[in-house]
Amino acid sequence: MKDSPSSQAGIIKVIATLIGGIVAVGAIAIAAAFLWPAQKAELRTADIKRLDYDSSMAAINQQITHDTAEAGLRNECRSFAKTHGKKTAKAILLIHGISGCTSDMADIANVFYEQGYNVYAPRVPQHGYYADKKRHGQISFSDMVNYMTTSARQVSGLGEEVGVAGHSGGGNMATWLAQYGNGLFSRVLLIAPFYEPAASQAPKWQIPLMRNLYGNNILPDRYSGNDEVNGLSYRALAKYVTLKENYKANLAAPGLKHVGVVVSEGDHDIDPDLAHDIPQKMATNNNASFQYKKFPASMNIGHDMTRRASPGVSAHSEEVFQTYLAVYEGK
Question: Residues of the chain whose pLDDT is less than 50?
């Protein structure tokens, strides 16, 4: 028995309503994915207590002991300090990049140590494990804040003047610390700072989607180049992008005296405009001096630019590392 015309019309109306509802839900989901607020309360506050030299060293040694006992952690990825046995005029905190580890900052540490600095390079949480290179994708916002505030407290007693230097995602963290460090850090060195991927890696319109869907762990993790062994975690990248969205209004950074930036024309991983504009604005808005250096493409230096053995760096290592020191000191 065939349905009557009125019955058929009713069925069509129900189907149309269902389709309309699905479309509406889809539109709301898409809008939410783009418009989800990036501001997070835990990324907009810090409680950093300053220590004396002995207390700083006790806290640092406790961190090193913890890393030494951590199962599966590579030896070269443990937190480390290079000190002169007493509080010095200058100290510096070194922060490695996403999926890297402290050994990436060892050559820079030597340069500053030889100039009389006390140096501390703490390992970023979820980084540096033998068997699970994907583990850096498990980093959380709480991990990031605890790491930054704890590291600032640990280094606080090592020098009369304290600065911070970071590579890639570590540069992002260093920028955050300049603002939320309660005036502890007077100098900042940003080496290829990662605030967002280069447009060739992710078009601008995709950034909010990546930040919200991966940064909030809604989508399963993926890895750059679809390489789960050596690729960068989308979830980790998105969390660092989110960190940038939680900087202070006008990038207010009490006590900041100098901002230095070093990038390479051959680095195609980071947004080069943001790597210049954010640090410059932070310097300008805080009446701090600003120095910017770009290595030319002819030097063949890519994003990996903190190790003497890195491609391109090895042929120009003395120039590269003296540049880091000079740009940090504003010479």
Answer: 1-6, 14, 18, 23-29
First-to-last C-alpha distance (Å) of the chain: 91
C-beta of residue 293 within 8 angstroms of C-beta of residue 320? no
Query: Residue 294: beta bridge partners?
Result: 263
Q: What is the pLDDT of residues 97-127, one digit of tens each?
A: 999 999 999 999 999 999 999 999 999 999 9
C-alpha 205/C-alpha 139 separation (Å) is: 25
277-294, pLDDT tens digit by residue?
Answer: 999 999 999 999 999 999
With contact defined as beta carbons under 8 Å apart, do 177 and 162 qualify? no
Hey, which residues does 111 pair with through a beta bridge?
none
Nearest alpha carbon to residue 106 among 127, 79, 144: 79
Residues 6 or more apart whose CB falls under 8 angstroms from that of 3 comprise 11
d(CA 278, CA 276): 6
3-state secondary structure the chain: CCCCHHHHHHHHHHHHHHHHHHHHHHHHHHHHHHHCCCCCHHHCCCCCCCCCHHHHHHHHHHHHHHHHHCCCECHHHCCEEECCCCCEEEEEEEECCCCCCHHHHHHHHHHHHHCCCEEEECCCCCCCECCCHHHHHHCCHHHHHHHHHHHHHHHCCCEEEEEEEEECHHHHHHHHHHHHCCCCEEEEEEECCCCCECCCCCCHHHHHHHHHHHHCCCCCCCEHHHCCCCCCEHHHHHHHHHHHCCCCHHHCCCCCCEEEEEEECCCCCECHHHHHHHHHHHHHHCCCEEEEEEECHHHCCCCCCCCCCCCCCHHHHHHHHHHHHHHHHCC
List phi, psi (to 5°) of 259: -125, 125
Q: Could you tell me the pTM of the whole model?
A: 0.90
Reading the block at residue 198, the tokens are 């280069």
Greatest CA span in the chain, whole angstroms? 96
